[in-house]
Amino acid sequence: MMKKLGLVARQALAVGSLGLLGSISATAVQAQTAAPAAEPVKARAGAVPAPARQQGEGAGPFRKMVIRGVTLIDGSGAPPRGPVDVVVENNIVTAIEAAGTPGLPLVQGRAPRDADYELDATGMYMLPGFIDMHVHGSSDDKAPDLSYSYKLWLAHGVTSVRGVDLAPFEIALSERARSARNEIAAPRIFSYHRPGTGRGWTGGVTNTPEKAREWVRWAAKAGIDGIKVTADPTQPPEVLEAIYDEAKKQHIGTVAHLSQIGVARMDARHAGDAGLGTVTHFYGHMESLLKEGPVQNWDPSYNYMDEQDRFSNVANLYRESFEPGSDEWKDYLQTQKKNGVTFDPTMTIYAASRDLMHARNADWHGQYTMPQLWNFFQSSRENHGSYFFDWTTEKEVRWRNFYKKFMHLINDYKNIGGRVTAGSDSGFIFKTYGFGYVEELELLQEAGFNPTQVVQAATLNGALTLYEPKGNVAPPIGTVRVGKLADMVLVKENPLQNFKTLYGTGALRLNEQTQKLERVGGVSYTIKDGIVYDAKKLLADVAEMVKSEKRRMGLPEEGVPLP
């Protein structure tokens, strides 16, 4: 999503990635982590780099760490197994060993006994670090700096993010490098950018195939991980085709938000045929399935620049498109699977359109939503995604019907073997960083994914999508397996039983002994690159950041200001 309604031509925001190729040795990664610290690139307006990681922000990496007695959900689709001990050396998983037999006491005196750090995870669950495949960071109209979004992601188990884009070009690459060296408390960063961006680019608007290819080559040399396109007026189909083709030659990924401005000429089917890697959001899917040709039946008064028009009319696609199970529906999905296209639905970011009151009154806003971000959410002609000028029951009903069909499409794609990932696009439409990602997992389950399939979408599928363009079909993240990077999430509650327990605010459950409701859950520890972060401490840091900003602005520290 774009930051401001009227700023489509403005340089976009982004954050980047490690971009590791091939196999990863502990020695190589250790050397990278130990590299001398570099000064962060100074920010232009709109994005402020995160402060350096402070004493107490994460422990490690350690020569040898053992996580004892945990039940492992490894992300591959395999069932949970445990208890096991997981051994990490520096930031590489080197062993996963049985710690006993379910129902019996753990075996005593288990090897190894020479660890520098042991974490007793008896009764806990371990998952791979989550991967958020669609992020924008906390720009300065939403929070003081990028650490606000970073810490909320880490606090919810997100250890890798794909910025599309999250900060300006140079800041994104700088933040990516700082994260790779673990100089900041931040997820692993993958940096996708829009054609024509970057201060070093002198070729102007990428409105011809030749200019587009030249920019792709320039940006790939600069080190980006991929390209985000939006089908804007300067990029007709022949330009997009050139971008997708050149990106493959340069071994970088592509993701497209096929907006209404360009979707009539290149919908998701045609983009997939041209070599697009990922369709993000819902844009382009239903337009590939319109019953009466490639152009939606716009209301005569429709104005794309009026965002209530733009978003309320999206829901009409459910009436204008072919039905689930039709020949056209099945042919579309099979074509996208043949082309190897990933679907990144980001259902969470538009969920307020079907239930605005629920989104406005979420449990976490008072304590964890920055006052600037809360103000950004309010109905506004200027702020992108703040389109609830007169949001009616009728509009919500249309969106609910649209979601039923969209979810059906996503689930059917999964059922035929198509790849689906988890992305949040938080920072807009009442979605707070981290919390929005967990909601996406809930929505995938609502769409028909079983809980293990949800975890696979949130971990392995994201990793494959990020690393395959680089030529790596065995990504170093996405699963907890020997030889993989130590990106992990530790939780006390079984997430397969209830994804709500992943929210930083936990879930309510009746205590049968006291007959009182209690909050249970939340992530206990997030491990990124072998560094152990206390998720509760990260949340406390964010809560204090929010309080500090409220004090500075003269607002009550509790609750959120009314519009």
Automatic annotation (TrEMBL):
Record carries keyword Hydrolase: yes
The entry's keywords: Hydrolase, Signal
Superkingdom of the organism of origin: Bacteria
Signal peptide: 1-28
One GO molecular-function entry: hydrolase activity, acting on carbon-nitrogen (but not peptide) bonds
SUPFAM superfamilies found in the cross-reference section: Composite domain of metallo-dependent hydrolases (SSF51338), Metallo-dependent hydrolases (SSF51556)
Classification via Gene3D superfamilies: Amidohydrolase (3.30.110.90), Metal-dependent hydrolases (3.20.20.140), Urease, subunit C, domain 1 (2.30.40.10)
Protein name from the UniProt record: Amidohydrolase
Amidohydrolase-related domain sequence ranges: 125-531
